[in-house]
Write a structure and sequence with these properties.
Elements lengths: L2 H13 L8 E3 H7 L6 H14 L7 E4 L2 E8 H6 L1 H4 L5 H29 L3 H13 L7 H17 L8
Length: about 170
């Protein structure tokens, strides 16, 4: 399997879009950041060989639409290919990158699920929930969470005041 085949498979996979898109790291940008652009082709070739041996890696490799020769790895791809990446970049940076992408993905998924939950309730239910949250006392360390929840509810309620009403 060559890079062209990986690109075709990655594009095919990207076209089957999902409700949540993972955050990714660009191999090209990593090489630029570390001032090692000469390693780009070597890294891509090693990742390609790994993908030939373990085709399930293709689920974690994407292609940058603006730069089709670039490879993008999600947090699982970073983890599974960490031995390759650590041969070119500092170990602690690869570990930190993996943690960063995992944290961003979890936050993004939680926000998506929260918005889905908000959309599933009627305006009256959201108004009742908003009043309940506003009336509760919380410890100071939980106050930012309370304020965030209030803002989300207020925003969702105000969106429904338009001409086209949702529930």
């Amino acid at each position: 399997m060559n890079i062209a085949k990986i690109i075709k498979l990655a594009i095919k996979k990207a076209n089957k879009s999902e409700s949540h898109r993972s955050n990714v790291a660009s191999i090209y940008k990593m090489c630029e950041c570390y001032k090692r652009p000469e390693y780009f082709n070597q890294i891509v070739n090693r990742i390609t060989r790994e993908a030939e041996e373990y085709p399930e890696l293709l689920n974690h490799i994407a292609v940058d639409p603006a730069r089709t020769e670039d490879m993008l790895l999600d947090e699982t791809g970073i983890f599974l290919l960490s031995d390759v990446l650590m041969g070119y970049f500092p170990d602690e940076d690869i570990i930190a990158l993996h943690r960063h992408l995992r944290t961003k993905d979890k936050k993004q998924k939680n926000e998506y699920n929260m918005f889905q939950m908000l959309h599933s309730h009627s305006k009256e239910e959201l108004t009742t929930l908003l009043r309940d949250i506003e009336s509760k006392d919380v410890p100071p360390e939980r106050q930012p969470g309370k304020e965030y929840a209030i803002k989300l509810l207020q925003d969702e309620i105000s969106k429904r005041k338009g001409i086209f009403r949702i529930k």
